[in-house]
C-alpha cells in the first residue's frame, strides 16, 4: 500500500509544477488544480496509514480501494507528464536577437500553438477529478492506526562489525577449522596448485584411496541465511596464500555455464584453478562438469561450493553447516544492537529478547535483520514485536525458513513507505547481482521515488535512503575489493531471501514485471509499469502484442542479448532505459533513432553495453534527461546535441568517451557528476573547457582525462576555486609520461575541506603541496600524487591524514637520492596512517625499523643510490623473537620498489627484514625489483630473501615479485634470458 501513497505523492508534485507562475493557465483552471491537489493530499494521508499495516490484516475492500487509487494515480501522472512536456516545448525562450516583425509573427503562432495543450490540461484535470471522485467515496470508511517511522541518515557504524575479517566473525572458528580439515586432511605448509571450476565432479573424488594431489571438492549445505557464503569466503581468505591462484565467484540460480567458465578463465591461468561457488537449488547439470578436462588433474586443487539443496551437493563431500549456538546467537544480536562487547541495558526486557532469539533459530540473517529492526526501539516496542501476528504461529514446512521469512517481512513493514518503494525497485535486478550505487540512486530519482529536502540534493537524499536500507539489513553493502581504488561502499547486493520477498510483493502490486527465462516469453500482466529483462535473449513475441506496454515507466535489461527489439513502439512514457551488460547488434542499435521520441526519459544507461558505438542525434530531444551513464561502454564521442540536455545532472563516460567540443559545458551547467575525456580537443578548446568547469557550481564528482600542459593547468586551477561542493577530483592523462610539471598556481589552489578523493597523477609536484594536511583536508580518504622529493614533514603530514584509506605515491626519477623518515610512529599522538588500507609507492623503497632501546618504530621511504643503507645489517637480525609493536593497523596491501644494486652495495646487507612484521593486517605484498646494474646473484638473492620475509610474517601474506630493467651479470658470462629481462612471478 505504500506504493499507492508514493504514486499519489508524485501526482501532487506534478500539480504543484503546473501551478508555477510561468505556466499561463486558462481562467479558473488554477483553482481546479488546487482543489484536486488538496483532495489528493487527503487521500495520501489515509493511504500512508493504510500502508503501515500488513496486507493480510487489511479488509479486502481497503486493498481494492487502494489498488484503484494507485492505478488512477499512475494514469494521472502520465497525463500530467505529457502536458508538461507539451508546455516545455512551446514555452521555449524566444530569440531576443530576431527582428520585431519576426517576433510578433512568432508570438501569434505561439498563441495558437499553446491553446491546444492548455485546453488539453483543462480536460485532463476534469477527467482526473471525476476518476478520483469514483474511488474517494470509499476513503472515509476506513481508519487504521499507524506508528511514525524513525529516520536514519548515515550508515550505522555497528554494521561494520558484521563485515569484519574472518578471524573476527562471530561463531566462525569451529566451522572454518572443520571445513579446512575436510579440504586438506594432510595440510602442510607448502605451496599448492589451485584449480577453479564449476563445483561438480564424480562422487569418488573424495575417496580415501585417491592421491592427496587429486582435486578436492566439498559442498557447504544449509538453509538460506545461515552464512554458507560467509564461511566459504573465510576459508578462501585463509587458504588463498597457500595457492598459486584462486578466485571467489558467485552465480545465481539459473547460471549461464559458458559465462561462468569465461569468468573463471578471466581470473586464472588455464592450468591452475581453485573455486568457491554459490550454487542454486536448480543447478543440476552435472555432465558438463564431470566430463570437463579441468576436473581430472593432479594439481592438488580444491573447490568449495555452497547450496541449499542437498541433492545438488550429494556428488561430493558435504559439510552440514549448523545454526549458531545460543551463546553465539546472543553475541551476534548484541553486537548489532550495541556494538562490539556491547551489553543489554539495566532495564532491558530479558524475556522479550529470549523469545526473539528463539524465533531467530540461530540463523545469522534472521538475527541481524531482527536486531536492525530493534535498534533504537523502546522497551514496549520489543514486546510489540513478540505480540505481532505470526510470532507464535505454527509452521507446516521448514520452521527455520518460515521464521526467517516472517522476520524479513516484519522488517519490511517496519520501514517508512519511501524505503519500501525503493527496496521493491531492486527486484529489477537478477539474483547475486552487484548493483552500482550511483546507477541505482539515479534510477530512483528518475522514477520520482526521492523527495528533495531543503539543504540537500536529490542524490544526497537518495544516498540517505541507500544507507537506511543498509542499516536495516535489507541490502548488503558491497565493500571495495582488495585491488579496488574505491574507498567507500560502491554498491549493494540483495540476499536471495530478501529478493524472493520483494519479487513476490512486486508481483502482487504489479510494481515490476520480470522476464528472465531462457526462451524470451513475455510478461503476463495486462498492464506493465516496469519491465525487467534478466539474463535472456530479448526478442519480440506474439504475446508482446497482447500486453499493454503503453504505461511502461522503466525498462531495465541486465546481461541480455538483444536480438531484434528493445523499444516497443508504445513506450512513450518511459522514464528509465537501462541496458547494463547487454549485447546489442549494430542493426538493432541503428534502429533506435526514434530514441528521441521518449520525451519523458530521465535515465539512459548503457553501462558495460556492447555493440553501441555512437548515440543518435535525436537524443538532443530528451529535455528531461538527467542521467547519461556510458561507463565501460563503446561510445567514443558524444554528439554535439548533448548541449541541448540542459537538465543533465549525471554524465559518466567511458575512459574513451570524448566531449563533443570545448563549449558544451556552457549550456549543461547543472552537472553534479562529470566523467569525460577531452584529449580529442584542440588546445584552445581544452582551455575553454577548463574555464567552463568553473560554472559547474553543483558538481560533486569531476573526472577529466586529457593533456595537462601549463595553460590548461592554469585554467583548471582558477576554476577549482568556484567548485565549493566538490568531493571527488580525478585527473588522468592519455599518454604514459613522467607528468607535466605543476604550475605555480597549484601552490595557491583552495580545495574544499570536504574533499574525499584527490587524484592528481598527471601533475608532477616538486614536493608535497602544503594543502595536503589534516587541517586543510580532514576527511580525505583517497590520494594519488606524483612527487619528486619527500621530506620528514611531508611524510608526517601524509601519515596524519585521519581518514586516508588509499595512498598512491609515484616518483618520476627513482634513481635520484631521497630519504624521508618518521620516528616512533607507534607512539604518534594522532596515529600514523591509522586507517590506511592500501599503500602503493612506485619508485620508492620502504623500510620499518624497530629501535629496541625505546621500542619505537621508524618508517622510511627511500630512493636512489645515494640513500642511507637500505635493509638490515645482518641476516640474523630479522629472526629476532621480540614481537614488534603493531603500526598502520589496517594496512592490507603494500606495493614498493627494491633497488637490488643499492641493497648489496656494501656487501653486508639483506632485505630479509624490512620490518613488515610490524604490519598486523598485511595480506598482499607487491614488489618491483629494479635490476639495473645488479648481478644475477644479487637479484636472485633479493628474490629469495623477500619471499622468506613474507613467509615469516604471521599472516603469511601473498607476495608478487616483478623484475624490470636490464641487469649486468658480473659473476657469469651470460644471462639465460638475454639482455632485457622482465619477468613476473607469483
Report what the structure shows.
With 986 residues, this protein is of the alpha/beta class. Among the domains are: 2-141, no CATH class; 172-320, Rossmann fold; 326-414, no CATH class; 417-511, Orthogonal Bundle (Arc Repressor Mutant, subunit A), CATH 1.10.10.10; 789-986, no CATH class. Strand 17 (673-677), helix 20 (683-693) and strand 18 form a beta-alpha-beta unit. Helix 1 runs antiparallel to helix 2. The radius of gyration is 31 Å and the shape is globular. The C terminus is likely disordered. Belongs to the disease resistance NB-LRR family. It comes from Setaria italica (Foxtail millet). This is NB-ARC domain-containing protein. It holds the Pfam family NB-ARC.
Class based on secondary structure composition and strand pairing? alpha/beta
Uncertain runs are 90-109, 111-117, 141-154, 156-167, 188-211, 270-291, 518-524, 875-879, 968-986
The number of helical runs is 24
Nearest-integer average pLDDT: 76
How helical, in percent, are the residues? 25-40%
Apparent shape: globular
Topology readout:
Layout lengths: L1 H17 L10 H23 L8 H31 L9 H37 L36 H11 L32 E6 L6 H12 L17 H11 L7 E4 L8 H4 L11 E6 L2 H4 L3 E4 L5 H13 L11 H11 L3 H11 L4 H8 L12 H16 L2 H9 L9 E2 H11 L10 H14 L4 E3 L12 E3 L2 H13 L4 E3 L14 E5 L2 E2 L15 E5 L2 E2 L13 E3 L7 H5 L12 E3 L21 E3 L20 E3 L20 E5 L5 H11 L7 E6 L3 H11 L7 E6 L6 E2 L15 E9 L16 E6 L4 H8 L6 E5 L7 E5 L15 E5 L2 E7 L4 E8 L29 E7 H4 L20 E7 L5 H17 L5 E7 L18 E3 L1
Parallel strand pairs: 1-3, 1-4, 2-3, 8-9, 9-11, 10-12, 11-13, 13-14, 14-15, 15-16, 16-17, 17-18, 18-19, 19-21, 20-21, 21-22, 22-23, 23-25, 25-28, 28-29, 29-30
Antiparallel strand pairs: 5-7, 6-7, 24-27, 26-27, 30-31
Helix pairs in contact: 1-2, 1-3, 1-15, 2-4, 3-4, 5-6, 10-12, 11-13, 12-14, 16-17, 20-21
